[in-house]
Amino acid sequence: MVSNHLLLEEPIRMASILEPSKSSFFPAMTKIVGTLGPRSRSVEVISGCLKAGMSVARFDISWGDAEYHQETLENLRAAIKGTKKLCAVMLDTVGAELQVVNKSENPISLKADDTVILTPDEGQEASSEVLPINFSGLSEAVKKGDTIFMGQYLFTGSETTSVWLEVEEVKGADVVCVVKNTATLAGALFTLHASQIHINLPTLSEKDKEFISSWGVKNKIDFLSLSYTRHAEDVREARQFLSKLGDLSQTQIFAKIENEEGLIHFDEILQEADGIILSRGNLGIDLPPEKVFLFQKDAVHKCNMAGKPAVVTRVVDSMTDNLRPTRAEATDVANAVLDGTDAILLGAETLRGLYPIETISIVGKICAEAEKVFNQDLYFKRTVKFVGEPMTHLESIASSAVRAAIKVKASVIICFTSSGRAARLIAKYRPTMPVLSVVIPRLKTNQLKWSFSGAFEARQSLIVRGLFPLLADPRHPAESTNATNESVLKVALDHGKASGVIKSHDRVVICQKVGDASVVKIIELED
């Protein structure tokens, strides 16, 4: 168990807390993933979300068809062009999700102590007595006394939209349950979560594969959020599937830990995945409430030490309907940042919430304030100790760049990279200043055509804490002479100056490759 990375300078002036925060080009080092949907799919709203700090747009394919999501994505592209803000695309799979299909979309009222039957007969109409589900094996997986949760958005803070069911008996393929709380379910689709029970469904469903093969390939998705990841083999199978889909071989896979199985196999999943999403909604149902924080802190720490992004979900559920988060939610966001989280993922808050732009803005402000008291010195020492000696060449360069930047109080670290790996390693040590990742494209061929790499690598930096990408002119090679490096550096410095990150007389740490040598240098800017 790792103690909080919290740094408070003594003596603390309580009145200083009331002083307004300084505005910055970068709202926060911690990134924000926003789910686009009915309330957040217009060009105007998406532009507002980008300006507020959203750097990754999530598309949840458990609802909506390809045409709907394509229209949303085209609006995202228009917003990116209009705001000049980079944004990556994440596709979130359906996975091994149990669902109730309410074809009529009529509200269904369930009352405490009543019984309701879950049946695999999808031809039946959903009602308060019978609910058809998409899984024929539920009766074989559960037993009397087991717990099943159901709702359109599972436990978002309002118990009137989620139902807790207890299995009373199994009748053939049907499961008879007792309703434990009164609620009204609205909408066309409800999710079921059987607590601590193995569900024999594939991690990548046929719908997932079809959607990825068409929509995903067409739009060159940057991230695949692999729902209900239970084993490392799930990640390997998904990667093998993507490897056959051309450009999607570069798509990063983020394993979504949503149940007890994923928790038990966390270490092996982390080795295979490119990043981890802690889906605290479903996971919070499988785990006792008093254990959720423990898993979060341990999982985030392991991600940090592995240098892989950790994303935390379900932080400001109340902002789905309210303009301000609760005090507990605001503290929860800050604690996630202090734990070392790379990004905060907003689901219902932006998908169907009344205040998507305001939610992103407030979460960004909370993250920025928490980052000010993040004890980077303690974190750096622990990371170096964990890595051990001898360090790899790249690890040594990355840690040295961060150490130098802190010692000279540099305003920014600029890293030249072609794969993005060096910049991610620098970000792993959590420098207190932004890292500008200058991605220099490489010319590549598939024997049919020539193309430049770099766009994927740049966008995939947008989920890493403290990393801000800049795609260089492709005419500059990845390994170049001093002259061409200097010209690319000038572009990066000009970008930093324009954004207000770099000012006259500031010190800047540069990490670059010259020939076969990796170089860390410090420059001081003139007027």
UniProtKB/TrEMBL annotation:
Q: Which Pfam families match?
A: PK, PK_C
What is its pathway?
Carbohydrate degradation; glycolysis; pyruvate from D-glyceraldehyde 3-phosphate: step 5/5
EC numbers, comma separated: 2.7.1.40
Cofactor(s) demanded: K(+)
| Sample GO molecular function, one term | kinase activity
Q: Which UniProt keywords apply?
A: ATP-binding, Glycolysis, Kinase, Magnesium, Metal-binding, Nucleotide-binding, Pyruvate, Transferase
The superkingdom listed in its UniProt entry is: Eukaryota
Its UniProt entry gives the catalysed reaction(s) as: pyruvate + ATP = phosphoenolpyruvate + ADP + H(+)
Q: Where is the Pyruvate kinase barrel domain?
A: 30-360
The residues covered by the Pyruvate kinase C-terminal domain are 395-515
Q: Which InterPro entries match?
A: Pyr_Knase, Pyrv/PenolPyrv_kinase-like_dom, Pyrv_kinase-like_dom_sf, Pyrv_Knase-like_insert_dom_sf, Pyrv_Knase_brl, Pyrv_Knase_C, Pyrv_Knase_C_sf, Pyrv_Knase_insert_dom_sf
Q: Which family does it belong to?
A: Belongs to the pyruvate kinase family.
Put simply, this protein is called Pyruvate kinase
Q: Which organism is it from?
A: Lithospermum erythrorhizon (Purple gromwell)
